[in-house]
Design a protein that fits this description.
Helix content is 68%, strand content 0%. The chain contains 3 helices and no strands.
């Protein structure tokens, strides 16, 4: 007979506990990675804020799409936000 130790034998409880801890560490790491992905901004990929808008404004001015007066007015508006 098996001596009352069940299917996994004498050390099976230890191995099961190790795998359970590893599983929870993997789940916790996944949750942390998800939160980092959702709550970190990476420039213009997620709406980088004022600097991104100022960069776009500067590019438009450099291409000649807007004149200096319009550039200065829009830059002032963006800095006041």
């Amino acid at each position: 007979m098996m001596g009352g130790y069940g299917v996994m034998g004498q050390g099976g409880w230890f191995l099961g506990m190790v795998f359970m801890v590893l599983m929870w560490l993997l789940v916790a790491g996944g949750v942390v990675a998800l939160f980092k992905y959702l709550f970190t901004t990476s420039g213009s990929a997620r709406g980088g804020g004022r600097s991104s808008a100022l960069e776009v404004l500067g590019e438009r001015y450099a291409r000649g799409e807007i004149d200096k007066a319009e550039f200065e007015a829009k830059r002032k508006d963006l800095k006041d936000l």
